[in-house]
Please model this.
Amino acid sequence: MKWIYLAIVLTSVLSLVQARPELVLENDSRNLITIGSFGFLAGGKLTLELSHLSLSDRLAQGILAFYIHRSSTVDSAYQDLETADEGSEDDEANDGDVPTCVLDHEIIRNEVQDGTCTILTVPDNQTVWTYEHIVAADEEALWTIVFVNCKHGSDVTLTLKTTELNPGPNHLSAGDSPLPKVYGSVAAAYVVAACIWGWALTRPDTKIFWSHRLMLLLVILVGINKALQALKYHYMKIGVDAEGYTISVYIFAFSDRVGMDVHQAFSFRQGQARHLCCDPITGLQVAFVPKCDHRITNTGYNSCSFFFTLDHR
Model:
């Protein structure tokens, strides 16, 4: 077990010295390349730094551009692009001429006129290109950035560094900003629960089974998992790559799942789970403890569903 924890510590430390990862494309033939989504607040800043730009065929007709869509959901941006892309393919099939760029579709043109999207054309005769924008009060929304290659038949090679900042500075999306405190609070709650559970196991009038000790270990593992998640989002908030903490979170999440399965097996083997199958039950105390399962969304909502039992006889 020692080498496992040593590996966790090493990956966590190494993640602190790595720079924020860049997007590197080599001879990519895709027309639409999703960069990512980020919830901006007023005063936020978006920076796009493009370098090492090259094309397999610079004489190909069309443009290179960034499509930036502002909305309340990610799906709306992708739906508009997919609809426009399908329309472009239909135009190509009907006309038989040079394929129409997805950015020329009526849906995209209407978005530009309405101010819900921005098209940033990238000069194809330059290898380095930079864009900076300060978010205004009326531009607060979920920004979705997509790289569009309308040079049909030409593969693109580039390196892109994207920096997204909210006031603070805060590198987390608007919906994810409370997550460090949320996970920190949940971790603290599990520490308290572990203390109460440990105290209950030491009471002289309590009959102890192995499943009870396993449950204490499980609560401790979940608490460590939530503490690592709090650290991960804290370092993401200040702009440090938290990949090492992400790996640690997955390891402890797996441990939680294995621990739950082992606990259930011990409970049924020792007869402590009979109350799940038969009645009546006497002297059963059930304590509910929230176990937050964070969905990877821009709202950062969590769902809670976890319980453990202690049978006093």
Summary: The helical segments are 2-17, 74-95, 106-114, 179-201, 210-237, 243-269. Residues 1-19, 272-313 have pLDDT under 50 and may be disordered. The radius of gyration is 26 Å. The domain at 19-165 is CATH 2.60.120.680 (Jelly Rolls).
